[in-house]
Design a protein that fits this description.
Chain A is of the alpha+beta class. Chain A is about 45% helix and about 20% strand. Classes of the chains: A alpha+beta (about 425), B alpha/beta (about 450).
């Protein structure tokens, strides 16, 4: 008898998704789908808008990562109009992007991922959530909340609002940080570095506890899409970097993205499937997000994070196809984010009022902006007319970049679970909390 | 006993939930009072478990997101059936939000762009995905056009403190004295001089006794600061009759309505939170013990409901503040708009009204609640809390308001001629409420 397994909706996920696995009479997995049942047509209704207003609309694509959706279209319009922003504005944006990276990675680790590991995969679903974690581990819970709070408050101070920021403008930033605000965060940042180290400790213990799972479940060779700046991990600016399943790194100028990134419209998902164009679909399916970024990086931008990357590579090797290592990769990025924040808060440029150029003139043309959002690569291509009105827009967001890779991984894991019965022999630790 | 709550996410960005989570440590006292039975972003209950619950099983349902897909509409109806109170949570469900701008086109045009024309698509004959997909609504509409809504919480997103405050209010966590007797029992005006006899709208009959600054001593009506009393005085009948025929009162007599609604239930009305008329009746009927509202006397509930019903259609009696009221920049400044500036032009000074400096700022036509956050970083308001008046041409209204009340050298017509994207500026968050675009 054909059996169909539906997970509706996938929970602890920022977005609308369902899983569907079909198992045939012979016990073999016939189909595995990741159905994303929501889209809102930003690619249409941005037409006719003032280009400089787009960064005030598109943060509504994602309330969890609105900062990259604010900065990336701003960069795209600046690219289209040929605008160069002052250096203090660039540094403020990098600080803002890293503040978001920090709070978002903390949220992902503690609120979305940790319940699976701390309670174990077979725990009562009614308890497997961050509310329960906070009640059972109040000190860790309070620390997690303080980390998110720090990042979100820093986003609010620089961005005007943390959810749906407003301070970036074509030509720079509306205003610098105030010295009082900078001093307030500087006074807290050392504590946050300590929280980060503690979080890494917890994370590495989880990896060690679940090593059998990390090393054996969901190890799927794919391509990887990331961004690097001369080979260095960077979440604000750089080139497209593709890593092949064998570990070969290839760089492309972001303006050539249409030669590199192909978009397949599937029958069963509103979120489209991206792939590496030279390799074709489905062979060229890639993954994005933290593990991809770590696979792409020659080195991290900051010392502690670079040490963490070396430790990762000593254990796993130069390239990792381990889906469960996404969490570890996220921790390396978390470390980099707080180090970047600590460094930039000491940079006088973040309080420098020279953060907006007056030399901004619309012109006809198209521009591309790319950043790395907490959940994956983010690319905007915006076409402007001579008056600076948007003619059309193409948005490749983290969801597009991730879906094909997730579905490929899902098929692999479904076979491991239902055909190879991998769960039966797995070595699992005792739950930390019940 | 914790109170059952559910959070539903329709087509949106999940930012309302991030905003709620942004309360961070402020959540700790609230969480134990909640029995979260559905919240896909945070807990693992599946859709089937929600469907399996008896109707009315959940006390409060937060419905976030716009109604873009057919599944969104089904979800909204499901929540209405399972929850006693529905809150339209955030500007998506209140007004449709930015995605409502898609109403400018037929849905087929939007589908064509997204699934067939986008430059990076490589398929030979791409088309709209249909397998296990819900399909799209032809136009986005606000939540209350599909189901009845008990309370609205506007904002993109609503502010964390406003959400927490509303949650605590609905859970009965906002302590109110709820004295046994009403203010009338302590009022110095005897029956002949009772303000209700003079057709002053005095809320003494339903308000808790015990205040030290008695407004009636100065001949002013009670506005309900201390909140509802457990019992009402005999004069409540009179008050109730007046609220049933409120149209017949002069506007002077109604001047204290706003204060009453703001103070009586301790509801953060000015943070974008609105109760719809029948919320009290709903709660009383179901008698949820955890909710303070459940203990309110029937007459009090009727009076409140009469007022809300009236005010829903006569918004001018609620002094709906606009964003300018919460903005620190000076109106009537030394600056004067002589042409409409684009946001990227120049550098605004930090003292003068942005409109007077030439920028398009939606503050004058946007309801307050945000605290003027955008202007603090020199960014004009883009209208995310919704408008202060509905069913009117917002561009006309904007031009009208700013050419009359602000330092603007342009005529209404000159100003409008310089705004190239009127919908995108004036109705960025609310186009889905505009029936001309259906």
């Amino acid at each position: 008898m054909v059996k169909e397994i539906n997970v509706e909706p996938v929970t602890r996920l920022e977005g609308h998704g369902g899983l569907r696995i079909v198992i045939g009479d012979d016990g073999k997995v016939k189909n595995a789908q990741f159905n994303i049942a929501s889209t809102r047509f930003f690619e249409k209704f941005l037409e006719g808008r003032y280009c400089e207003h787009i960064p005030r609309i598109t943060p509504r694509i994602c309330g969890i990562c609105p900062i990259p959706h604010h900065l990336t279209p701003t960069k795209a319009v600046e690219d289209a109009w040929g605008v160069t922003i002052p250096e203090p504005a660039r540094k403020l944006r990098i600080l803002l992007q890293n503040a978001k990276q920090y709070s978002s990675h903390a949220l992902h680790f503690y609120a979305l991922a940790a319940p699976d590991f701390l309670l174990g995969p077979f725990a009562d679903p009614a308890l497997r959530n961050v509310v329960h974690v906070i009640s059972k581990m109040p000190e860790v819970g309070a620390m997690a909340l303080k980390m998110m709070d720090f990042g979100q408050k820093l986003c609010a101070d620089i961005g005007g609002k943390s959810v749906h920021p407003i301070s970036a403008i074509v030509g720079g930033m509306k205003q610098p940080m105030s010295e009082a605000s900078r001093d307030k965060f500087l006074a807290q940042v050392n504590e946050q570095v300590e929280f980060t180290k503690k979080t890494v400790e917890i994370g590495l213990k989880v990896v060690e506890d679940y090593w059998d799972v990390v090393a054996n479940v969901g190890v799927v060779p794919t391509y990887y899409l990331g961004m690097t700046n001369n080979g260095v991990h960077d979440i604000y600016e750089g080139d497209i970097r593709i890593v092949t399943p064998e570990g070969k790194k290839i760089d492309y100028d972001v303006h050539n993205y249409l030669d590199v990134l192909g978009e397949h419209i599937p029958e069963h998902s509103y979120a489209t499937h991206m792939y590496y164009k030279p390799a074709g679909y489905p062979d060229g399916i890639y993954r994005s997000n933290t593990l991809a970024m770590i696979n792409c990086a020659d080195k991290m931008a900051t010392p502690l994070a670079d040490g963490a990357l070396k430790a990762f590579r000593d254990k796993i090797g130069p390239i990792s196809h381990h889906t469960f290592a996404y969490h570890w990769a996220r921790l390396i990025e978390l470390v980099e984010a707080i180090e970047m924040v600590a460094t930039l808060l000491q940079d006088p440029d973040v309080v420098n009022p020279d953060c907006k150029t007056l030399d901004v003139q619309p012109r006809e043309g198209n521009g591309v902006g790319m950043t790395e959002a907490p959940r994956g690569n983010l690319l905007y291509n915006i076409w402007s007319d001579a008056d600076g009105i948007c003619k059309k827009a193409n948005l490749l967001v983290a969801t597009n970049h991730n879906i094909a890779g997730i579905e490929k991984t899902l098929m692999h894991v479904a076979k491991q679970v239902f055909e190879d019965k991998v769960l039966e022999g797995l070595k699992l630790p005792d739950p930390w909390i019940d | 006993m914790a109170v059952k709550v559910a959070f539903m996410q329709n087509s949106d960005c999940w930012g309302c939930h991030q905003s709620l989570l942004n309360a961070h440590l402020g959540l700790l006292p609230v969480l134990p009072a909640l029995d979260i039975v559905y919240w896909p972003a945070v807990v693992d209950f599946k859709h089937d478990s929600l469907k399996a619950r008896p109707d009315g099983d959940i006390l409060v349902g937060f419905v976030e997101g716009s109604l873009r897909t057919n599944a969104d509409v089904e979800n909204a109806k499901l929540m209405r059936a399972k929850c006693q109170l529905i809150i339209a949570f955030g500007s998506c469900s209140c007004y449709g939000n930015v995605h409502g701008l898609a109403n400018e086109w037929d849905i087929e045009e939007a589908i064509k762009r997204k699934f067939t024309q986008v430059e990076s698509i490589t398929d030979e004959s791409p088309h709209e995905p249909k397998e296990h997909m819900p399909g799209f609504m032809r136009k986005i509409v606000p939540l209350d056009e599909v189901i009845s809504v008990d309370a609205y919480m506007a904002g993109c997103p609503p502010k964390p403190e406003a959400i927490l405050s509303a949650v605590q209010f609905l859970l009965g966590q906002k302590p109110q004295p709820m004295a046994d007797l009403s203010f009338c029992n302590d009022c110095s005006l005897n029956n002949e001089s009772c303000l209700l006899e003079k057709y002053d709208l005095c809320f003494g009959p339903i308000t808790s006794i015990g205040c030290t600054l008695k407004c009636t001593d100065n001949g002013d009506p009670c506005v309900g600061c201390l909140g509802p009393a457990k019992t009402v005085s005999a004069r409540a009948e009179k008050l109730k009759a007046m609220t049933q025929n409120i149209d017949q009162l002069s506007s002077g007599d109604k001047k204290n309505l706003h204060e009453f609604l703001t103070l009586f239930l301790n509801v953060p009305l000015m943070s974008g939170f609105d109760l719809a008329g029948d919320i009290l009746k709903q709660v009383r009927r179901t008698g949820q013990p955890k909710t303070a509202l459940a203990n309110i006397p029937a007459d009090t509930g009727d009076i409140y409901a009469n007022l809300m019903k009236y005010l829903k259609n006569n918004r001018e009696f609620i002094k709906i503040s606009n964003v300018c009221d919460q903005c620190d920049l000076e109106i009537g400044s030394k600056s004067r708009m002589t042409k409409v500036k684009r946001d990227y032009e120049g550098l605004p000074n930090k003292t003068d009204c942005l409109i007077e400096q030439g920028y398009l700022c939606a503050g004058p036509i946007t309801r307050a609640g945000c605290g003027g956050m955008c202007m603090r970083v020199n960014a004009p308001c883009s209208g995310c809390f919704g408008q202060t008046a509905w069913g009117v041409d917002q561009a006309e209204r904007f031009a009208d308001v700013v050419t009359k009340g602000f330092n603007v050298a342009l005529s209404k017509e000159e100003l409008l001629a310089q705004v190239k994207d009127k919908l995108g500026f004036m109705e960025k968050f609310t186009l889905a409420t505009n029936k001309n675009y259906r």
